[in-house]
Amino acid sequence: MKRIHILLLLPMMIVACLNELSPAMPDEEETTLKKAVGHHFLIGTTLNNAIVNGRDPASDRVVKRHFNAITHGYAMKFAMLHPAEGRYLFDESDAFVRYGEQNGMTVIGHCLVWHKQLPDWVVRDKDGNLVTPEALKARMREHISTVVGRYRGRVKGWDVVNEAFLEDGSYRQSPYYEILGEEFIPLAFQYAHEADPDAELYYNDGNMAVTKRREAVVRLIGQLKARGLRIDAVGMQAHVSMNFPKVENFEKSIQAFADAGVKVMITEWDMTALPTTDTGSDGRPLTPEELDPYPEKMPDSASQAWNARMKQFFDLFVKYSDVVTRVTVWGVSDIDSWLNDFPFPGRTDYPLLFDREYQPKTFVREILGEE
Ligand code: XIL
């Protein structure tokens, strides 16, 4: 009797076991970027306050499904964190770091020293004159040790200095440079390391496929290393466009940074589908229609070209996956890209991996194995 009973149950038990293993379970079947590329590198995106605070559930779903690393697009910049002397606003950055921890994501800090989104009080006195080197050093040290120290052990790595060089390889004439000269970079790395000796430290910049800037960054890596300062990686922003840069020049920069002894992170990847200057190749000013050519939808031919070029960059990152340890896109869906307002406000751009319906673009579907 007992034996018959078990025999009758057996088929049901087998079906139950198969169901457990079967990819028909929605979660297991789900294709995700982090599953598809996680063996190559971390795959990251930026958050904004609406996502962090639960006011944008559509983006939140995409972030949690596809990405395992996060950067906040603005909450950790100087002006947001520390708008006035002695006044810190940590609510948004605290919530951002918690979001990462609750979802098992690698949290990246962006950024400690940058000439933009930098409040005047840091570098100028009340008469508008630049402050002394000693005053700026003290402010930098205090800011960096407070911010990096607060997230010690929780933020995996920091963009310590952002955009210090011009494309001709010279130092940008930022207030930091004007006051402290070249020394502001090693000082920033030193202060960050003192505040969290285990945090990774990065130098971050854009348009680094340009030879002179590439060379300047290689020199900087050498100088920091020669002084025994920690630098783990160069962050290549990778705000690229349809005709700039050449993929092979981008590749040369990855190689050059790897040869200089650091890892490479793609930190702000997006590709505008729109004109990046307001004049045509003949110098004629572009009309409003030419500047914003796809207010409703990208035509198929433009979209195919965009996807093909993005795939070329992606394949390049994979080719160097022993060097490239993270690829972060600068935003979740096209709706929220900063490029809708930069360099000209109020346009409709298509620069990210997910469209305005939060669906993956064609080349992303290929990566996911859905095409
Ligand atoms: C942009 C953000 O996306 C915007 O939300 C913000 O208002 C301005 O800055 N290089 C960088 C980023 O290092 O911090 C910039 O982010 C884009 C260019």
Describe this protein with a few key phrases.
single chain; 371 residues; alpha/beta; TIM Barrel; 16 helices; 43% helix; globular; binds (3S,4R)-3-hydroxy-2-oxopiperidin-4-yl beta-D-xylopyranoside
Report on the structure:
It is a single chain. The chain is α/β, with parallel strands linked by helices. The protein is 43% helix and 14% strand. It has a single domain (30-275, 287-367), classed as TIM Barrel, CATH 3.20.20.80. It has 16 helices and 9 strands. The protein has an 8-stranded parallel barrel, surrounded by 5 helices. Helix 9 runs parallel beside helix 11 (184-195) and helix 12 (211-226) runs parallel beside helix 13 (247-259). The protein is globular, with a radius of gyration of 23 Å. The N and C termini lie far apart (53 Å). Residues 14-26 have low confidence and may be disordered. Bound molecules: (3S,4R)-3-hydroxy-2-oxopiperidin-4-yl beta-D-xylopyranoside.
CATH superfamily: Glycosidases
Helix content: 40-55%
Count of runs of 4 or more consecutive helical residues = 16
Ligand kinds: (3S,4R)-3-hydroxy-2-oxopiperidin-4-yl beta-D-xylopyranoside
